[in-house]
Amino acid sequence: MAGTKDFDLYRPSEEHDMLRDSVRALAEAKIAPYAAEVDEEGRFPEEARAALTAADLHAIHVPEAFGGAGADALATVIVIEEVARVCASSSLIPAVNKLGSLPVVLAGSEALKKKYLGPLAQGDAMFSYALSEPDAGSDAGGMKTKAVRDGDHYVLNGVKRWITNAGVSEYYTVMAVTDPDKRTKGISAFVVEKADEGVSFGAPEKKLGIKGSPTREVYLDNVRIPADRLIGEEGTGFATAMKTLDHTRITIAAQALGIAQGALDYAKGYVQERKQFGKPIGDFQGVQFMLADMAMKLEAARQLTYAAAAKSERVAAGGEKEDLTFYGAAAKCYASDAAMEITTDAVQLLGGYGYTRDYPVERMMRDAKITQIYEGTNQVQRIVMARNLP
User: Fold this and answer.
1) Nearest to 336 by CA among 302, 385, 290, 387
2) Where do the H-state alpha helices sit in 199-356?
3) Coil, helix or strand at residue 91
4) Other Cβ atoms within 10 Å of 195 Cβ, number
5) Angle CA(155)–CA(158)–CA(160) in degrees, nearest 5?
6) Of 113, 196, 269, 341, which one is least surrounded by beta carbons within 10 A?
């Protein structure tokens, strides 16, 4: 079999490895020191935003043509993973910047891309994604927010719920109904700005985890926007939203990987230091088996996520038949389930200490939970997988 010796099987490139090293160093130096405080005070991680923006890691996915780094999907995964390893709230800066802006990247006009991706790449603005509503969660097609054409403008009215980084982001990709008779084929996508008249926000939700990332309702009260803020054609918004999620579910898998890795790393160190019955508890086989299972689940999740990221990149480059819908859902579902198990076991390994806020693993356990819920619950991911079996 000629050439097999040169085949670099399932390994990130040297550039990806170097990126991981640099992001980890930055995260440990400039983000980790504030993680507990950000969680405790429920405040936005400004230090992380400043550090990520200075290093051009806040929206690494933006194409070079619009002033971005033009990073591939795996590079984006690695950035999110390494930030989430120390602070899940901070990892939502690069993750949601991609989620919010990807509809513009995928379906926006050149003028729209230039107008909104440039400031995002420069770090002058963040981007959020407004799909969910009070009565339209898993059934996103049941949304009620309306956009009515009025000359050269659209007028938007409605409420969006569970919007990550709402109030902090300058730009919002908003899905709204333009033709109520067509259900999902009557939904269109728009860019709304925080500064637009009629845009306001609800109080921040009081959440179990990711407390440093504000989650708020977005109110649209007769918001009048130029018609050229329509993303793609009328009626294509839902398709763009679903296409976006195929790519961005992988970033939630990345976040889950990072949270789980942080918990495993901490637990691994702890069991070597903590002594009971005259020896480190890491010497006991029961503890060793727990660590082995944690590491095994994490590595399985990582391989699935990286394979999905590679497919995402190939699809973005014009490739077809990559089973991206299945792989994106599988990566998100498996990695988030694994993260919940791994962080719960990390708390168990620390015993009473694991249950206190003096140690980071209880925060990681709380943060891991949301990865099973947002960007499509894991029950919905299983429906998606079943409908798209490769």
Assistant:
1) 302
2) 237-273, 285-316, 324-349
3) helix
4) 8
5) 125
6) 269
Q: Is 193 helix (H, G, I), strand (E, B) or coil?
A: strand
Task: Map tokens 């050229």 to a residue.
Answer: 228
Angle at 287 between CA 282 and CA 289, to 5 degrees: 120
Say what the pLDDT of residue 320 is: 80
| Active-site option among 133, 217, 362, 375 | 375
pLDDT for the residue 9:
66
- The CA distance from 264 to 84, in Å, is 13
Q: How far apart are CA 35 and CA 40, in angstroms?
A: 9
Apex 20 CA angle, 15 and 23, nearest 5: 120
Q: Is 133 a catalytic residue?
A: no
- pLDDT at residue 4, as a whole number: 55
Position 5 confidence tier, pLDDT thresholds 50, 70, 90 = low
Burial class (CB in 10 A: 0-12, 13-18, 19+), 127: buried
DSSP state of 5: G
Which pair of tokens denotes residue 40? 């405790």
pLDDT at 321: 78
Q: Is 176 helix (H, G, I), strand (E, B) or coil?
A: strand
